[in-house]
From TrEMBL:
This is NTP pyrophosphohydrolase MazG putative catalytic core domain-containing protein. The lineage of its organism: Bacteria, Bacillati, Bacillota, Bacilli, Bacillales.
Length: 125
């Protein structure tokens, strides 16, 4: 299994190779892109899509076909798991762009969170 930082490098390298960094993007734009992926997951939830299951789409002859299994790599994964993966990929790409050691940051934050009291902050949701 790859480390988080290896995945960060891979996600950012793929984004660079696909031209996603040919124009400058602000940090705010990157956050908005992450947020848009979360919004897509919420939209799938609102449409009563199953939380744990992807479906697959492919455009052919101007029409969109859907299947419950991925026939080959040309079929696009859709659904809540896929949208959540997109969120993480966007985060990885941003971390790769800015040189953020995400693996260390996660470990440090999880260690801190373990010390917090139950339901800290008193917020309802």
């Amino acid at each position: 299994m790859k480390t988080i930082n290896e995945l960060v490098h891979e996600a950012h390298s793929n984004a660079v190779s696909k031209g996603r960094w040919e124009e400058h993007r602000t940090f705010g734009e990157l956050i908005a892109l992450m947020h848009s992926e979360l919004s897509e997951a919420l939209e799938d939830f609102r449409n009563n899509e199953p939380i744990t299951i992807n479906w697959y789409e492919k455009k052919e002859d101007g029409r969109v076909r859907t299947e419950v299994i991925q026939i080959d790599d040309t079929w696009k994964p859709c659904g809540i798991p896929s949208e959540l993966a997109d969120v993480v990929i966007r985060v990885f790409d941003a971390c790769g762009r800015y040189g953020i050691d995400l693996e260390e940051a996660i470990q440090e934050k999880m260690a801190y969170n373990a010390t917090r009291p139950q339901r800290h902050g008193g917020k309802k949701i």
